[in-house]
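Translate sequence into structure tokens.
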Amino acid sequence: MTRYLQEKVSKAPVFLNKPSPLLGMVVVVPCCNEPHLLLSLMALKRCQLPDCDVEVIVVVNDGEHAQPAIKQQNQATFHQAVKWARHNSNSRLRFLIHYEADMPKKHAGVGLARKTGMDEACFRFAKAGLEDGIIVCFDADSRCDENYLREIHRHFNQHPNCPACSIYFEHPLSGADFEPEVYEAIARYELHLRYYIHAQRLAGVPHAFQTIGSAMAVRSSAYQQQGGMNRRKAGEDFYFLHKFTPLPGFAELSSTRVIPSPRPSDRVPFGTGKAVGKILKNNGRLFTYHPEGFRQLRSFLQQDLYSTPPPELKLPPLIGQFLASQNFSEKWSETKTHTASEQSFRQRFFRWFDAFMVMKYAHFVRDNGYPNVPVEEAANWLAREKGHTASGPTTVCLLNWYRAIDSGRKFH
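Result follows.
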């Protein structure tokens, strides 16, 4: 058993049955107050199977102070899922259902639920004698394309040095499950997500990737080496995946698709559900980071940071003020002292100027002269910067253009 499983896991293995010796992938699904879990499990059941056996671990969970209605729903979901799993599991694809009730109030939430399932996946791989199985994160209200499992397995087989990957996603933009206003809101929110990543890349940030909890996968060995999943109640995906984005081989998988739910929610302080709820309360409007912040960031990152001491850099006003507030001069000197080449300097620098620092900078820009702007305005600016000349596209048209870039499809 690995050191991680001996020292970093607080729970003993939940499932004692023997896994298949051909087990190669475990999909982890946290589930709290989800009446339609079976729809997500059915989506996984419909998938084409990869060249390995697969287990799906569902962690139905609630906190010790959860409302009685939530506990009642969870109990009903658990029993329903156990019955469904009994009739739908087979030797190649097995569904394992666990109910983690009354989690400690301090940590109860999606982070701990994901950690419980992902740690269990590591135990399952160890019991199967496999050091490097694939752990896939999914959600109890998500769907996926039928090639989902096969493409994830193919990706890690073809890229043996890939420690983890972000998986392409698309929220539904129409349907009968929600009111039209919800689909309009999720279109704007997804446009914001894609604009923010592309704006960072335009500025020269090297490790800008989407971090969606239902759309990521990691090797068991890399998961353990990086200390496993955190126990955050929200944003656990952002903090988790950004431990892997600077590592050699990290990738985006765009040959399949996760379809997360667009529903509004107040269960967590931020994230998709919370954002959709806020957009609906704001008459459907969404504001995002001003392009000027990324213009100034690009001007900074395009310079020769390795050979040019901070006093000699040409710093635009906002980036100059922000870097001063972060003691950039001292950090530059420290980085320069401990590196012997431009490549090692950049690697060390961007471990400091990472995703958290970029977000802090974006908030600094917002609060110091360049307030957020409508997401369509910002996304149009970036599209023009990339040579897209369509005049006055709608939100959905703009979003489809960004989706085409991210998925590798042609834009029509």
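Note: The CA atoms of residues 69 and 258 lie 29 Å apart.
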